[in-house]
Amino acid sequence: MKIMSAQSGMNNVNFRAAQVNILATSDNHGNVHSLPKFVKTIESNEAEIFQKGKEPSTLNIFAIAGDWFINPSKKGFITKEKMKNGDIQLRFLKKTIDCVNKLLGKESNFDTVFTMGNHDLDGGDRFIYKAITVAPMKTLVTNVDLEKSPVINGMMQKVNPNVAKSIVYEIPDDKNPDLKHKVLFVGATIPTMGFYNPGLLEKMSFYDDGNVKDSNLNEEDIQGTINAVKEEVEKFKKENPKGAVILLSHMGARLSQMIRDNVPQINVILNGHDHKYLTSLRGKTNINSLGQDNEMIKSLNLRFNDDGDLETTDMNMFFTGLTLVDDIENHPLQLFLNENFARDREPLVSVKDLGGKEVELDYGTEIRYSNSHLANYLTSAIKRSVRNSNPDVFAVAIQSSIIRGGIKDGSSNLDLMKVFDGVSEDLSNLQIGEVKGKELVGLITENILANLDAPTRNTIIHWSDIQIDRTLMSKIRSGESKKQYKDAIKVRNNITKKFEPINLSAGYKIVLPEKYLVKDDIKWPGKIRDRFVSLNQTYDELFKQYLYEIDHQIKVTPKTKEQRIL
C-alpha cells in the first residue's frame, strides 16, 4: 500500500538529486521468534524499500523508534538456562542489522538509528548502557537530562559517536560534487519512567520525568522534551534551512503531535509506543505510527531536488503476515534460532476443551479493555498456585498490560515466556493482603473509570473471582443510570460458585502486582499498600508451577469462558 504525502511532487526517482530511504519499526517487544519473517519481508521488498539504495547519493537508514527490548533481566530458557531475555534480544538486534546491511552491500551508505522506549529501560541503566554500547547503531538521547544522567553523559564525554543528542547525515548530490544535502535525526523517549519503571533508573533521567501515566500528560507536562527537540532542530535549520528533519518518537501519536505543533520544521515523525498503524499529516509533517510485535514495517523514501529542497516523501507499509515463507527454515536468522534455542521452540503445552478439541487462548489488544478468556484462565491458574501456600486467598488480579502473549495447542517455551513479559523482573513480585469490600469497590471503580477514558493506555485489571459490569459503570458516570458503582461489581460465592453482590463490610484477601501498588498517580494503591506483603514470586513463576502440576495439559472449561467483564 502506497501513500503519498501532501509534500509529494515529482514522483520519478530518476529526476532527483539525493534520496533518503528509511526502514522503520517500533515496539518489537523482544519477539525474536518472528524476526526471521520480519527480515524476510524486508528482503522480499528490497527494491521498494531501498530505492536506488546502492548509489552514493542515497542514504539508507534502519530506524527503530523504541522498545526493541522488553524485560531484559528475565530468565527461563530451557536450552540456555543462564541466558536472559536481554541477551538473546541483543544478539538478534545485531543479527537483524547485519542482515539489512548485507542486503544493501558494503558500498552502500547505511546506518541504524535507535531511540529508547520505556521497555528498553526495563533492565535499568546497566542493561541499556551495555546494549547501546555493543549494538552497531546510533542512539538518540535528545530528551535525556545529561546533568542528571552520568551514565549517558559519561558515554558522550568519551566521544562515543554512537550516542548523541542528534545526528546530522550528509548526502552527496548526484550531479554537483560541491552540494551536500543534510538530514537531521532527533529522538524523544516517553519521559515518565517514574511510572513505567519506578526506581530502576539510578543514573539516567529524562526531562519531564515523573510518576504519571502518559495518557494523563498534557502539553505543559512535556515542555522539557519539546524544548530539547526544538533546540536541536532550530540549530540545524539555522545552518541548513533546506535540510530535512526526522524525529524518532517513542511518545505515542498524541504527544508526538504536540511536539510537532511546537516544532513545525519536522518533516517526518516515526512514532512508537501506542502500537497503532496510522499515518497522518499535520501541517507539513508526516506522522507514521509503527504498530507492534514485528507485525508491520514502514518504509519512507524522501527525495531532494536539484535546488536542495525536500520535494517528495513516499510511504509504504508491509505486513509481515502476508510475506511468503518459502525456504524460511534456511534463513540465517531462523537457523540461528533453531541452533541455539531448539528445545525452547519445541511444542510444550496442550490446550483443549473438555471435549478434546484444540482451542486457543488468544491474545489481542482487546484484553486491555474487555473480557478475555486468556485473562480468565491466567487469573484462575495463578490463584490455584497461590492457594498452595495461602489457601484463604479470595482473588488474584492481573493488570492486562502485563500480559503480552497467548497460548495455543503446541505453544513452545518461547511462546510461554512472552505471556507475562509486560513488566520488569525487578517490579514483578506479587503482593498479598486483605481489603474490605468497600475498599475493593473503590479500587476497581478507579481502574474502570480510568480505562473508560483511555481503553488501551489505562489498562483494565482482570480478576479471578470478580465480575465487573464496565458498561454499567460507564452509564452511571454519564448519568444514564441511577445505580451506584458497587452495583456493577459482583464476587464469586465460594459455595455456589455463582457471582453475587459484594459485601461492603466483608474482608477479601487478594493478590495484586507490586507494580500496581507502588503507583502514586492513582489514589487507591497508597491507601492499601501498607497492608500487603510480598509473596516473593512472580506471575511467570506461579504459572509455570501450575503448568508443571497439570503436566502442561490445559483444559478450557466453562469457567474460562465466563463473562467477567461485561
Characterize the structure shown.
The protein has 566 residues and is an alpha/beta fold. Helix content is 28%, strand content 24%. The chain is globular, with a radius of gyration of 25 Å. The protein starts with a strand and ends in a 10-residue tail after the last strand. 48% of the residues are buried. Mean pLDDT is 91; it is low at 1-14.
Q: Report the mean per-residue pLDDT as an integer.
A: 91
In the CATH hierarchy, the third-tier topology of the largest domain is known as: Purple Acid Phosphatase, chain A, domain 2
| Structure summary, number of beta strands | 26
Strand content: 15-25%
User: With helices defined by DSSP (H or I, 4 residues minimum), what is the helix count?
Assistant: 16
Number of domains: 2
Radius of gyration: 25 Å
Relevant CATH superfamily of the largest domain: Metallo-dependent phosphatases
Write the layout of secondary structure elements.
Blueprint: E1 2-4, E2 18-25, H1 35-44, H2 46-49, E3 58-64, H3 85-104, E4 109-115, H4 124-134, E5 138-140, H5 150-157, E6 163-164, E7 166-172, E8 180-189, H6 193-196, H7 223-239, E9 244-250, H8 253-262, E10 268-271, E11 279-282, E12 285-289, E13 296-304, E14 310-319, H9 332-340, E15 350-353, E16 360-361, H10 373-386, E17 395-399, E18 407-408, H11 413-419, E19 429-436, H12 437-453, E20 461-463, E21 466-468, H13 470-478, E22 489-492, E23 499-501, E24 507-513, H14 514-517, H15 523-528, E25 533-538, H16 539-549, E26 553-556
